[in-house]
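Predict structure. Chain length: 609.
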Amino acid sequence: MERTGPPARMTGLLAAFSAALLAVGGLAATAPSASAADADVARNGTFEAGLTGWNCTGGSGVAVSTPVHGGTSALKATPAGSDNAKCSQTVTVKPNSAYTLSAWVQGSYVYLGAEGTGTTDVSTWTQSAGAWQKLTTTFRTGASTTSVKVYTHGWYGTPAYYADDLTLVGPGGDPVVLPAVPAGLRAGTPTSSSVPLSWTAATGATGYNVYRGGALVLSATGTSATVTGLTASTAYSFQVTATNEAGESAKSAAVSATTTAGGGGGGGGSDLPAHALVGYLHSSFANGSGYTRMADVPDSWDVIDLAFGEPTSVTSGDIRFSLCPVTECPNVESVAEFKAAIKAKQAAGKKVLISIGGQNGQVQLATTAARDTFVSSVSKIIDEYGLDGLDIDFEGHSLSLNTGDTDFRSPTTPVVVNLISAVKSLKAKYGEKFVLTMAPETFFVQLGYQYYGSGPWGGQDPRAGAYLPVIHALRDDLTLLHVQDYNSGSIMGLDNQYHSMGGADFHIAMTDMLLTGFPVAGDQTKVFPGLRPDQVAIGLPASTQAGNGHTSPAEVTKALNCLTKKTDCGSYATHGTWSGLRGLMTWSVNWDRFNNWAFSKNFDAYFGG
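Prediction complete.
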């Protein structure tokens, strides 16, 4: 949790932009002219059937009625962030054959190309086409090439571009047929929040989609997958389809499975109230809000995070915690009084956690030695004060992804892998009652919808989306995720629009992403599954002094109404209604006290506390 400081910023892609502009010059290759018997083998190049046959990255494309080059429809695609709005389709071709690719385009920096040709992939582009302009390039397929991908795309940070009447003229290849329907779908042994599935390989399949209750939840390349983020003691129905370049098969026969009892955030949250209020207590330092003794924290607060345990050095993994010194906090209680107050809170059903990190507590578990030290030192704090668990509040440069670490489902970066291992060790040591919460910034979570790590060209901030592999690996142990919806730049939501902090809209869009799930960096084969609603709380500052992006109580109420009742949603359309949303988190108890308890009073009024 940041005590002070501006929101993080993305680094630019200007160097990559310039290099690409230099590289694309002269990419168009010559090839023998197409014969008179050749035909247009592209599908729906006129976009009269909408986007049928096309795939646009990050949902960047849409069919529009104006402007058009011919007919009544054209493609409009809008670049955003590191997404260049690439729209593509795979076309069946013949080996050792000549093809001519053409399209009419309009806009700045519009590209047309083909890849997977088996010879030299080609591309052509125009820097500025204020009116419709025709782009054409040619290529010859390789000796064993039976399909190529044709595409258009724009450039990063530029306005939308348009394309129409795209053709690929040449001999048609042998038609690709839809894959067979997968057979033998079966469910393995469920947990309280997940169900493993497996099925028999389908003829002609290159991938598979898994559906839960008729809704797509994940994609897989093999014949097994585990659906996570489920609710305990709940029956679910699953189906699977097979996919290839021709499309998607019909759904398989359904299989049902029921999750086991328990859960509630990996067991540690099973005795939390249905709607909980989480607050950080400044225990080790003072600031303008003043020091609040543990015994003086009102009963409204269900989870109290002690801020902060901090490392002896960034890479040591050695976490220390002590009460604020009396010279800084004259009204600080004694250690004995503090421990007694913790016991009293726990006797009243409250949870008290040690929060590790914060703005000043950078933690990088780059080695297994640091990992092991982290486990032993955090255990010592938990045992010393009789705490219920751990809150991970890694900020700044604590988490980032190494170049080449591109799949949140199987991370390779040591600081990420070691953190996951360390938390699993703590969970194993303390058992099912261990409470685990996380408080990442939007930069490390929702920004992953657009960016993940350093990106395909290495020009992005490697911290982008870096919490996603941690959340995903620990989702079955996670009690609460409360992303900090403050000190944040504008973030793109699932509606592909940017949302800014300070109002209900931001919290609605950011929370909808956590509950619905999203393709990471726009890759539909790498979908981050949504969390259970009881695992999610909205993180907000308690007052205008507590952080940028303070949200008035009225706007907080609107956000809760939209997410739990689907009312007061404004222009944003959520992907569900979640009456079981766990609640709210705030930075901090101290700042709420400074602000006459306005935040907690609003929570109590809404949930009947």
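Summary: The first strand starts at residue 39 and ends at 40.
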